[in-house]
Amino acid sequence: MSRIFKFFCVVIFAVILIACGSSAANQPTSSATGASTQAATTETITLFLGYIHSIQFAPVYVALEKGYFKEKGIDIKLEPSFDETDGLTRIGTGHLQFGIISGDQILLARSQGASVTYVFRWYQKFPVGVVVPDDSDIKQPQDLAGKVVGIPAKFGASYVGLQALLNAAKLKETDLIEVKAIGFDTAPVVCGKQVDASVVYIANEPALIEKSCFKVRVIKISDYANIVSNGLVTNEKTLKEQPDLVRAMNAALAKGLADTIADPKAAYAMSQKYVQNLTTNDPVQMTVLENSFDLWKTDKYGYSDPAAWKLTQDTLTTMGILKSPVDLNKVYSNDYLP
After folding, report:
1. How many whole angstroms separate alpha carbon 141 and alpha carbon 137?
2. What is the Rg, in whole angstroms, of the alpha carbon atoms belonging to the chain?
3. Where are the domains of the chain?
């Protein structure tokens, strides 16, 4: 009798479990259950930004505010910083998975053995140029010969861009009177005509100079040497173990870019949450945002042009910064685009 009783107890218990499970399956999911499901499928990712919060990152803010990362199961935390090298080092050593980093830095890091890969080309056109007063006799890159050219510092993307421009014009730095390091506050130097021309970021600095003094013209480096600029970077470990995460990051960024270009006013408004002292109506900052569109636009967001990478590598080699060529197949990839 004892064994029979136990048998029936087991059967009855099983029936109760099945009935309860069936009943629960037909009930609306509670908020607590939904939260636990969300937590189980959402991964917290830190995205390193190679600069302080600014309107240039509007596509990231839009993707974040519209939930494009969330819908891919990503909880994004932004980390703005001036120290691009620190971010790149942490990505290469696996202490960070993603960052917005310039292309020249990826080549240099690869040459030192860092396992970093550029997976989404944000800026399709190199965002640096040379600004001159509107009445200047400098009309083309060749006219820089015999002139004093200002530059923030003799390193980084601005300096690499200037060298690429000089190479395209078949000039050497020694053909100029001087390449003068003027720091990052360009407007007073240009307005004071302390230099004949100055290397600038074309989305924002010409507008700031014109607001301060006089009209200017810009020689865009991308018209002569379209080397690689900022994009999304990760490491080989992430590519190998979480390829879908890389695709999800790229897809969210692509949607953020498309939406920012389609509705700049909405993108500007969303950026106010992140950019300190960005007022509701700042015509200069709106101009900066709109000037960026030409640098971002493409038929395929994120795509890296092999020719641009070769040109970037050749420029660094000519400068003597890159001692020997690296395997470009490992430097960048188009395999994870949306």
Report:
1. 11
2. 26
3. 43-125+228-331, 128-223
128-223 belongs to which homologous superfamily?
A: Periplasmic binding protein-like II (3.40.190.10)
Cβ–Cβ < 8 Å for 203, 295: yes
From CA 158, how far away is CA 230, in angstroms rounded? Answer: 12
Query: Where do we find the tokens 């969303």?
Result: 270
Q: What is the pLDDT of residues 143-197, one digit of tens each?
A: 999 999 999 999 999 999 999 999 999 999 999 999 999 999 999 999 999 999 9
Give residue for tokens 């004949």.
196
200's tokens:
């600038």
Res 42: pLDDT: 87
| CATH class for the region spanning 43-125+228-331 | alpha beta
- pLDDT score of 37: 35
Smallest Cα–Cα separation from 312: which of 234, 225, 202?
A: 225
The model's confidence at residue 41, banded by pLDDT at 50, 70 and 90, is confident
Q: Mean pLDDT across the stretch 305-324?
A: 96
- Output the DSSP codes for 132-159: EETT-S--SGGGGTT-EEEES-SSHHHH
| pLDDT at residue 298 in the model | 96
Q: What is the 8-class DSSP label of residue 227?
A: -
Please tell me the distance from the alpha carbon of residue 50 to that of residue 331, in angstroms, as a whole number: 18
